[in-house]
């Protein structure tokens, strides 16, 4: 049985020890807070353990490299650094952070500066069914001055060329649209569709924009960082001049709020724009939003116009995520879901053809962030799909469509489904012959995903369009699934192994799923027969039938997650005894911080722990969810939510430390338990 002592310890740890005990963390202090997370190239974070140092700590790209993004305030002519001022000018002091909060869409920090208090609200909209809003490659920062004494207040913010991925050679421009001011910083001389070593885009433009709010007046300046900030510190305004670009320089805005005791707020928009965003089989794709706003200045101006509507929607969305988590399991589960959402949708781009801007050809592309950079990796889509099942089933179709389109070309001739459609995002130019191949894994996945889209949304168009391809992959499973040849599985760390139980489980459930899609009882019967062989006849279990094995007749045990679709779709492929027995078994192999992926390793993966949590019950289910919650709240980690972590002390790591796979969109798997309660619940 799971001991709640560990969960209590890590919760208390987030409030203990001076000086950070002055900060209130709600609902907990996560490994990393999402700041601006909207695409694989607009992905800014701050480690939870550095919140105390928010005034002097740089934002970080998901890979961990610094991004210059600062907020400074003057209160009665005294200057306070509020955020990101790693090299402060003389005569300034750091504000004091008192509170930090995250929801599904907002990360909010409260900072006191002299007699006044400021709130910094980093808001990345998640609007799964509004492709225009979701595809806009921008995020909001709203700085709110709380009501207080009557003070003269000015607010300043800047960014640098660090957002371009090439801070040593960039150019900038400034333009206006009505009262909106827009800076654009562009890397110079880099190839389209290229990245730097940290995974940042080396083409396109970083964008920073704002407009006056209420009675505030706006001034601007671009030039050397120390010079521009010194100007604000001295006068509270900027010179509206733009020096030639130099390395380390900044573009800045200053809002003069005047003398006020009232609450006041100013909003900035930060983004990264690429007109040609994805290379799909040699044809450029661009953001969906460009069908309506092809010009960047118009697009970011609209984004600022849309703030109130987007913020109202975010309140409803945050409430839905919270209530969904609480009703499925409890507040611990809600905390996990809320931290997962932006990371999922921030790894995806919704596109249309760049030449035609035709929204009838909408597609989506997902990056396998940090693990190997593949594009539209089918098993990554599979790991992510529970969140789409719950919130936005059409994303399954948007992501699978380019996969099916590629597999229909002469460039792909295999009888099983492809692993990915490109080795390096954003180049969806085809699967490399030297790339990974997972015949049973991916063939089963495309069947599951097609059925999930159909079952959640009620549409049959995906299957109707690609039924002949799907039948080919079902036939491959029928001929090869019960005794898999040596090949990779989702746990590719195992290498090429034959007779992998988890692959055979996938084949059995996938055949039954295909039978439902195609209304063919032969496949349903075969899938259930295979399940009986694997479990009841002990082909894939120990002799006593207490656990699944990695391979037939070969110990040790394995955390089998591929029968999750059996439970989700209500297929009755595996007998109830499968789920009852594994419910009893998994707690017996739990290590200090969770259940490992198999009996030979010291790490677990939150993706597959979440799938399994939805197949077991009682204390076993509680243990899986509480272990993930304890992992994100234990204070040991600083990277954006890594889905692989050490469950036992290993090789110099402590139990509960992250292992790898930071910032991946696969956290959609965390919605596996919630998906059992209902599909397509966001309207």
TrEMBL record:
It comes from the Eukaryota. The keyword Ribosomal protein does not apply. Residues 1-22 form the signal peptide. Coiled coil: none annotated. Residues 330-673 form the Glutaminase A central domain. Pfam families: DUF5127, GtaA_6_Hairpin. Residues 105-323 form the Glutaminase A N-terminal domain. InterPro entries: Glutaminase_GtaA (IPR052743), GtaA_central (IPR032514), GtaA_N (IPR033433). Keywords: Signal. This is Glutaminase.
């Amino acid at each position: 049985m799971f001991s709640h002592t560990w969960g209590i310890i890590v919760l208390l740890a987030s409030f203990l020890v001076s000086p950070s005990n002055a900060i209130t963390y709600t609902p907990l202090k996560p490994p990393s807070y999402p700041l601006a997370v909207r695409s694989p190239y607009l992905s800014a974070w701050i480690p939870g353990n550095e919140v105390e140092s928010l005034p002097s700590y740089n934002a970080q790209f998901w890979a961990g490299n610094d991004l210059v993004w600062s907020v400074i305030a003057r209160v009665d002519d005294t200057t306070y650094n509020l955020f990101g001022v790693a090299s402060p000018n003389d005569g300034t002091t750091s504000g004091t952070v008192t509170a930090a909060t995250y929801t599904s869409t907002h990360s909010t920090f409260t900072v006191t500066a002299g007699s006044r208090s400021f709130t910094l609200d980093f808001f990345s909209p998640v609007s799964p069914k509004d492709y225009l809003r979701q595809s806009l490659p921008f995020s909001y920062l709203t700085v709110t001055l709380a009501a207080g004494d009557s003070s003269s207040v000015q607010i300043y913010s800047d960014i640098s060329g660090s957002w371009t991925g090439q801070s040593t050679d960039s150019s900038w421009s400034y333009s206006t649209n009505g009262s909106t001011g827009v800076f654009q910083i562009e890397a110079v001389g880099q190839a389209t569709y290229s990245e730097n070593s940290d995974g940042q885009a080396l083409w396109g433009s970083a964008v920073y924009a704002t407009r006056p709010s209420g009675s505030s007046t706006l001034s601007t300046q671009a030039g050397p960082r120390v010079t521009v900030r010194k100007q604000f510190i001295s006068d509270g305004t900027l010179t509206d001049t733009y020096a030639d670009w130099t390395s380390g320089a900044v573009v800045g805005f200053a809002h003069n709020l005047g003398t006020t005791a009232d609450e006041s707020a100013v909003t900035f928009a930060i983004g990264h724009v690429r007109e040609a965003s994805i290379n799909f089989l040699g044809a450029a794709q661009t953001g969906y939003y460009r069908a309506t706003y092809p010009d960047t200045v118009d697009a970011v101006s609209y984004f600022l116009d849309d703030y109130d509507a987007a913020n109202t929607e975010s309140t409803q969305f945050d409430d839905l995520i919270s209530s969904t988590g609480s009703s499925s399991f409890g507040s611990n589960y809600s905390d996990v879901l809320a931290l997962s959402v932006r990371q999922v949708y921030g790894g995806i781009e919704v596109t249309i053809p760049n030449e035609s801007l035709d929204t009838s050809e909408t597609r989506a592309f997902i990056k396998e962030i940090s693990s190997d950079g593949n594009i539209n990796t089918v098993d990554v889509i599979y790991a992510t799909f529970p969140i789409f099942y719950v919130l936005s089933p059409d994303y399954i179709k948007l992501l699978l469509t380019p996969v099916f389109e590629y597999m229909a070309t002469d460039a792909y001739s295999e009888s099983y489904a492809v692993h990915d459609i490109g080795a390096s995002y954003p180049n969806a130019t085809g699967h490399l012959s030297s790339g990974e191949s997972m015949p049973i894994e991916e063939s089963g996945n495309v069947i599951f995903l097609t059925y999930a889209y159909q079952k959640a949304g009620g549409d049959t168009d995906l299957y109707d369009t690609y039924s002949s391809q799907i039948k080919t992959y079902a036939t491959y499973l029928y001929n090869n699934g019960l005794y898999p040849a040596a090949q990779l599985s989702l746990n590719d760390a195992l290498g090429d192994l034959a007779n992998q139980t988890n692959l055979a489980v996938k084949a059995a459930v996938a055949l039954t799923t295909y039978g439902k899609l195609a209304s063919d009882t032969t496949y349903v019967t075969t899938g259930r027969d295979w399940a009986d062989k694997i479990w009841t006849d002990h082909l894939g279990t120990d002799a006593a039938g207490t656990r699944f094995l990695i391979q037939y007749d070969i110990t040790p045990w394995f955390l089998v997650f591929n029968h999750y679709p059996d439970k989700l779709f209500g297929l009755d492929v595996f007998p109830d005894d499968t789920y009852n027995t594994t419910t009893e078994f998994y707690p017996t192999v739990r290590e200090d911080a969770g259940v490992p992926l198999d009996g030979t390793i010291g790490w677990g993966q939150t993706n597959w722990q979440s799938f399994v949590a939805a197949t077991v019950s009682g204390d076993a289910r509680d243990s899986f969810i509480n272990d993930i919650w304890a992992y994100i709240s234990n204070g040991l980690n600083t990277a954006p939510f890594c889905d692989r972590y050490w469950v036992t002390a290993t090789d110099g790591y402590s139990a509960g430390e992250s292992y790898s796979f930071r910032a991946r969109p696969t956290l959609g798997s965390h919605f596996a338990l919630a998906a059992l309660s209902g599909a397509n619940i966001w309207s």
